[in-house]
Automatic annotation (TrEMBL):
Coiled coil: none annotated. It comes from Candidatus Muproteobacteria bacterium RIFCSPLOWO2_01_FULL_60_18. NCBIfam families: cmk. Residues 9-220 form the Cytidylate kinase domain. The gene is cmk. This is Cytidylate kinase. ATP binds at residues 12-20. It catalyses: dCMP + ATP = dCDP + ADP; CMP + ATP = CDP + ADP. One of its GO terms (biological process) is pyrimidine nucleotide metabolic process. InterPro entries: Cytidylate_kin, Cytidylate_kinase_dom, P-loop_NTPase. One of its GO terms (cellular component) is cytoplasm.
C-alpha cells in the first residue's frame, strides 16, 4: 500500500451525502475517488447474475476474490462507470435492491477481507477520497482526515427519494424510509466493520446543511490538517 498518499475518509449511512460530497471534493482536489459501496453492490449484482445463494458464504467470498471490477472516471465529474468483467453495470447498481443485496454480502467477513486489497490498490498519487462505512475505521486507518457524515433517517430517505426520482426510478417514500432503517440496522449490527464513526473521526450532522455547506466544512477541515506545523 502506498502509505505516503493522503486519504480523505468519508463514512456514514446511506443518504448522508457522503458520495456527492466525496465526488465534488475529489474533483476539486484532483484526487482519485473510491466509491467502496459500489464494490459491495457489484458483488450483490454478480451473485444474482451467477445464481449464487446469499447464504453461500464460501462461494460469495470466492466471487469477491475473482470479481474483475474497474471504475472508469467520467470527465464531467459524475459517478464513475463501474465495469464488471469489462461490461458497464449501469442502473442496476444504484437501486435500493442492490443496496440491500450489498448490505447482506457486506456482513460476511471473508468478503470484506477479499475486497480489502482492491480498495488499497486505489490509493494512488496525488491522493484518494474514499467513501464508505469503514474507510476511516478499517480500510485506511491512517487517513489524514476522517469524517463521519450523518443525518436523520427521514432526511436521508427524502434525499434518496429525490436522487432516485431524478434517475427515473419508481420509488415510494415510506418504503424507502423502511429500507433505509433496515439497512442501517444490518450495517450497524454486523460483527465486522459495523457502521460507526472511527474514534478519531469528525462527526458532522448534515440534516440542516446543503451539499455545498458540507463540502466547504470538510474542505476547511482538510486544509487545516494539511497545514504544516
Ligand atoms: O454506500 P452504499 O449505499 O452504496 O453502500 C451499499 C452497502 O454496502 C451498505 O449498506 C453497506 O452494507 C455496504 N458497505 C460496506 N462498507 C463500505 C461501503 C458499503 O459495508 N465501505
Amino acid at each position: 500500500m502506498n502509505s505516503k498518499v493522503p486519504v480523505l475518509a468519508i463514512d456514514g449511512p446511506s443518504g448522508s451525502g457522503k458520495g456527492t460530497v466525496g465526488q465534488i471534493l475529489a474533483q476539486r482536489l484532483g484526487w482519485h475517488f473510491l466509491d467502496s459501496g459500489a464494490l459491495y453492490r457489484a458483488l450483490g449484482v454478480a451473485a444474482i447474475r451467477e445464481r449464487v445463494s446469499l447464504d453461500d458464504k464460501p462461494t460469495l467470498a470466492r466471487l469477491a476474490t475473482s470479481m474483475d471490477i474497474h471504475f472508469v472516471p467520467r470527465t464531467d465529474g459524475g459517478a464513475a462507470a463501474v465495469l464488471l468483467h469489462g461490461e458497464e453495470i449501469g442502473d442496476p447498481l444504484r437501486t435500493e435492491e442492490s443496496g440491500r443485496l450489498a448490505s447482506i454480502v457486506a456482513a460476511i467477513p471473508e468478503v470484506r477481507q477479499a475486497l480489502l486489497q482492491k480498495q488499497h490498490s486505489l490509493r494512488q498519487p496525488p491522493g484518494l477520497v474514499a467513501d464508505g462505512r469503514d474507510m476511516g475505521s478499517t480500510v485506511f486507518p491512517d487517513a489524514i482526515l476522517k469524517v463521519y457524515l450523518t443525518a436523520s433517517p427521514e432526511v436521508r430517505a427524502q434525499r434518496r427519494y429525490k436522487q432516485l426520482i431524478e434517475k427515473g426510478f419508481d420509488v415510494n417514500l415510506p418504503r424507502l424510509l423502511d429500507e433505509i432503517r433496515e439497512r442501517d440496522a444490518r450495517d450497524a449490527g454486523r460483527v465486522v466493520s459495523p457502521l460507526k464513526p472511527a474514534e478519531d473521526a469528525c462527526i458532522l450532522d448534515t440534516s440542516q446543511l446543503d451539499i455545498s455547506g458540507v463540502v466547504e466544512r470538510v474542505h476547511g477541515l482538510l486544509q487545516e490538517r494539511q497545514r504544516p506545523g
